[in-house]
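ok so I'm stuck.
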Amino acid sequence: MDRLSGMLQTGRAWPMGASWDGSGVNFAVFSAHATAVELCLFDAEGTHEIARAALPAQSGDIWHGYLPGAKPGLIYGLRAHGPWRPERGHRFNPHKLLLDPWAREIVGSFDWSGPHFAADREHPLDLDLRDNARQALKARVVHDHFDWHGDVHPRTPLADSVIYELHVKGFTRLMPGVPEALRGSYAGLACDAAIAHLRRLGVTAVELLPVHQRLDEQRLASFGLTNYWGYNTIGFFSPEPRYAATGQPREEFRTMVRRLHAAGIEVILDVVFNHTAESDERGPTISWRGLDNVSWYRLPVEQRSAYENITGTGNALDLRHPRVLQMVLDSLRYWTQTMHVDGFRFDLAPVLARGDWSFEAGGAFFKALAQDPLLAGVKLIAEPWDIGPGGYQLGHFPSGWLEWNDRFRDCARAFWLGGDCTRGELALRIAGSSDIFQARRRPPTESVNYAVSHDGFTLADLVSYDFRHNEANLEGNRDGHGHNLSWNCGVEGPSDDPDVLRLRQRLQRALLATVLLSQGTPMLAAGDELGHSQNGNNNPYCQDNETTWIDWSRADESLIAFTAHVIALRRRFLPLAQRWYTGLQDMRGRHDLSWLRRDGQTMTLADWNDRVSRVLGAYICAPGRTDTPLLLLVNAVDADTGFRLPPGDWCAELDTAEADGRSNWRGSGVDFPLRARSLVLLRNAAAN
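replied:
not stuck anymore, here's the structure
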């Protein structure tokens, strides 16, 4: 122990974490309220502490030291000394080994039976004096070198982007064509079979559910379940090792990115910077809590021993503090520069921009991102709500940000599945949600349009279940959404009735086409293009099994072909251009966009507000990628109808009433036979 103290030199206060310079390792740790921070070294297995010494220097709120001769592979942890005053927010306990928040690689597996709680479980105001070093998670010094072989970011324009949300494991765990040893891994996603499916569909980006290293909550572990979705981070710089088939997660992840880029597919990460895995005041002390609780977390002013739970997970990181903000930015830069990812989707994003009282669109988080040259050009996507006061912020993020548009989701579901929705509401959503984004001088592309995401029913279940069936989560079927806007088409769950099956298939195609042809940036959830079901579980966050793994053996090939056809039509025509429409006439007397009733007449105010009729048409005389006018027809009722076409020689490019979406219909000056529960795209072949 003393020998280490004699070897440590002053070092420097940057960069944060452990960094190897070829001759030794520099350690820099943030704590504004500690009285001392100790560096603890471990044997090669990470089980026995072999040396310990205080970091010898302090620059402001950074403790630092340099260990000459140290190399990558060194395993270390931290101990922080300071006051134990929970009522004031201080929870220092040097008996608990702490993980470096900037750890690039994490060693060990968390054992909930270990003494990882800083407070005595029976007497919460007292320290727990048991040492947990043997079982604690630790960091390993790494040297991040990788041959990218000239990798180039695709940088797909938003107008061309189609996002595909997937889970690294669930996507390939049962995929034929992927070697058994690689299924469910980063390497599996990089396989030819996986990439071939993505290219067949025509998607331009994969949005990966969290791949930061995570912890399974104590309750789940006690039931033999896991946090499958991954929204419980312990390592903001470390890829989840459970997805590494080779045992080398960083290298395997980067190889995956390189192969996806070579196929023209961007990689977007779902990131969770709103909270950590330490949970509330009853949770374990793993890292941030023990290093400086009052700086890392948002604590109620009137009760500093508790935590602001605006995330629903027990705690919330406090990005008002510059060092917390620094960790988030360092992580984003790391994944952008070192791991070559192309963008980020921020879980519960309003948490990141909360000031003392509320969400701040001009807050430090947004300003820091906007000026960072390394992060310029990456795609930034917000989940624009949290559960705190004023937490719903759709449309209020800065220009340049994309936002998950749940108004689009709910409207599309309600219109097609029999909920309360007018034609006026649907038209707004199809036309980029102009009431939300145009009013704030933001482009239509910043609306991420979707009908289904990982959070909720799959598309197949959306048209097969009226009620959630989450019993396997062991929460009494109380978890998950109760307001799904779903419709079981007359039978709850599986059915062999051909009429029910035909209706469900038609509704799935209509919803997919609505997402893909609307103005904005479309997003699909993996498996929806092939009829994947979760048996009615609309919150399978803890189901790492056949519930969530895509069953490729039961894939609906016609639905896959349909989805690929619609994406190809979007790429070919871009029916609604990525600019705002005015409704004004051009020099030829044509309106750039007009909305029609089934008799071919322009919609009136009464028509817009009619809560019964579900038939309308969008007459698009200024599409995004063709000079020929297009006509988008919608019939969301159970009866076939005719739709009077404008003058011209019209041909059908898409009819969702057909299994593959293709149609040979042509006609001029007639009523188009618009079938029940269908969407049709027509092109005016006579226009010049």
